[in-house]
Amino acid sequence: MGWPTFAPALLLITLSLALSWKPLPLHPAWSARILAVCGVSTALAVLSTTLLVAAVFITGLLPRDVVSGWGSRGALLLDHGPVSLHLGLMAVVLLMVGLFGIARLGLGVRKDIRAVRGDSQYITEQDHPIALAVPGQHGGVLVSRGLMRLLNREELQVVFRHEHAHLRHRHHVYSTLTALSAALFPPLRTLHQSLRLALERWADEDTAAITGNRELVARTIARVALASPKPRTSWHLALADSHALHRVRALLGKAPSANPVAGPALLGGTGVASSGIASSCFQLHHLYVLVLL
User: Fold this and answer.
1) pLDDT tens by residue, 188-206
2) CA 162 → CA 21, 87, 199, 254, distances in Å?
3) Could you read off the pLDDT of 122-143 as tens digits, one per residue?
4) Among residues 292, 200, 288, 284, which one has the least CA distance to residue 248?
5) DSSP conformation class of 283
6) Peptide bond between residue 82 and the one before it cis (omega within 30 degrees of 0)
7) The model's pTM
8) Which H helix or E strand runs over 40?
9) Which segments constitute the Peptidase M48 domain (predicted)?
10) Of 120, 115, 126, 204, nearest to 159 (Cα)?
11) What is the CB neighbour count within 10 angstroms for residue 89?
């Protein structure tokens, strides 16, 4: 098993880390989409490569006559061998840790959603300023009594419009997908954090465009951020849960370009390139063998 087996995954890891290290000079809506595509593609590439290495390693531990009895499937796995002990064990451990992380995150998100929905009355009666978007058929925007007291009418409108922007654009889907990708492959946590910032900036710009007052949105975020406690859950998108200073500075500047040409072009190019590289990790040149099994 040579370096070409690992090249696609390494290329996508490098691309994802580069995009998460320095924000793209695009509207946050396009940045968020590109980060999500890269994160998911990288996770799939790492998963498929790890599965292949682990399968070849385990196959190498079995008697050759047993593997030969599998027919084309066994020959396909033997063709990729041998795999060293250290590399094989590393692949098995990485696979187990990644799958455990995905299962743990999935259960945690489900538990958090139930807890937030079940404690909705408790949250709204809090004296701390809290505002968060709860996705789903029975979701909506939760605002605490403390927030109602803290903000005036115009600022409260900013809060509701910001949270509705999260729900309207289904930002929880982007966040959940990259969170699962980071659970599978921990180095993608930086990309997940960059995506969360892009989602918040996306909602900020939507709100600023609707209100026509960027300073009002910036002031509201600053006031809520200074008075808000630490978020109770890790899955929801709240008004001021992260990067508040960066967002306020951005809102006090000029509105970003909508990038009607560059945005779709870069998203399309990134999607085609990353999906093409990720698909190569599935060894598509052997697909005809798997179909015949």
Assistant:
1) 999 999 999 999 999 999 9
2) 26, 47, 11, 19
3) 667 778 888 888 887 666 888 8
4) 200
5) -
6) yes
7) 0.83
8) helix 28-61
9) 123-181
10) 204
11) 13
